[in-house]
Amino acid sequence: VREHWIASIPGDGIGIEVIEQAHRVLKQLEKLSKTFKLHIDTFNWSSNDYLKTGEYIPADGLKTLKKYDAILFGAVGSPDVPDHISLWGLILPIRKMFNQYVNLRPIRVLPGLSSPLKHIDAQDLDWVIVRENSEGEYAGQGGTTHDDTPYTIANEVAVFTRQGIERTIRFAFDTASSRPRKHLTLVTKSNAQRHGLVLWDKIFYEVAAEYPDVKTDKMLVDAMTVRMVLKPSTLDTIVATNLHGDILSDLAAALSGSIGVAPSSNLNPTREFPSMFEPIHGSAPDIAGLGVANPVGTFWSVAEMLKWLGEQEAGEKLMKGIEKVTESGFKTKDIGGNADMVTVTEALLRELENSY
Ligand code: NAD
Ligand code: MN
Questions:
Q1: pLDDT tens digits, residue range 111-156?
Q2: Isopropylmalate dehydrogenase-like domain: which residues (predicted)?
């Protein structure tokens, strides 16, 4: 049997709840498939640790994670900790240390869900967003001078490198080329951001020349929000900077029915280091502890993780199972149902049982 070592980091709030359900799903798949064994180790790094020790990740934490084949992540964030501290304290160090330079976000309207866009059919919305995951506004550059005076200046420096842009754009062309419609849209704001994003435009067309089978077009990010809402069927694969990709993928998730169903993969495409899989939603303090969080975004992320680990069959069966569950009405409140999280999970466990 194949063996996979998974580091699981539930984090805070509903992250803890949905990851617990994800473990049940993974154990069920392991039991049913009989072809792989999973070693899941849980790391309870959270905002509580930060409040006690001043750190999210213990001193040797990243070194420990490096040995795993994949990382499963819930969500981080607490009303007691400023959001920039939790983000930079837990998720961003992992993305950076393991060179997870692509954030891949598939978006579809699952069976049984409806898009808030009333003028479209479910199949009109089938996208993959490739978000650059290591640079731009998230490079951590900048600083504040004359703080606490009327003359404060805060510089938020976006950093773009040829290497960083090119590897992400190449990944996006490979992704587009593997999909039936073979269409890639570049999103920038190269009219206003005239250095980094002009470089994005330039590299995009250089790489495009190597992919004659992929049709391309280019949008400014503001106009892109309009196109996503009014003409979703004209889009297929989308590539964008770290910040633009972050914002557009939350919009995309909402258009697909709920932020609670959307998955994301933080990929290290060279496979030198572990990749990390997480739902795109946050810790949702407003519903934490109530057992009503939608676990679908996490389950879909688990399906992506299994495929990345080479467990194609288990990943596909899981995805089919998720679709059966939403289609047959086991839905949490955010997608118009009244099932709680555990009921949805148990419907999925039964579906999986039937599928083997
Ligand atoms: P959020 O995603 O936590 O919640 C936004 C809204 O969507 C809330 O009303 C919430 O109840 C709802 N929601 C989110 N996930 C849901 C689910 N699975 N099922 C049902 N409803 C769901 O975003 P926020 O409120 O902006 O942020 C809350 C905290 O999470 C903050 O501390 C923020 O920094 C953090 N955050 C973390 C991540 C991450 O860990 N990757 C991502 C985004 C936000
Ligand atoms: Mn986001």
A1: 999 999 998 999 999 999 999 999 999 988 999 999 999 999 999 9
A2: 5-348
pLDDT tens-digit map of 70-93 = 999 999 999 999 999 999 999 999
pLDDT score recorded for residue 77: 97
Atom of ligand 1 nearest to the CA of 296: 18
Helix ranges (H only) for 216-311 are: 221-230, 242-255, 296-308
Task: Domains for the chain: give ranges and CATH numbers.
Answer: 1-101+261-356 (3.40.718.10), 114-255 (3.40.718.10)
Whose tokens are 């976000």? That residue is 105
Distance 356 CA to ligand 2 centre (A): 35
Helix 296-308, helix 312-327: angle, nearest 10 = 160
Q: Which of 50, 259, 343, 344 to mutate to test the pocket of ligand 1 (most atoms within 8 A of CB)?
A: 259
Smallest-distance ligand from the CA of 83? 1
As a whole number of angstroms, the longest Cα–Cα distance in the chain is: 67
Q: What are phi and psi of 109, to 5 degrees?
A: -90, 110
Establish whether this prediction's ipTM goes over 0.85: yes
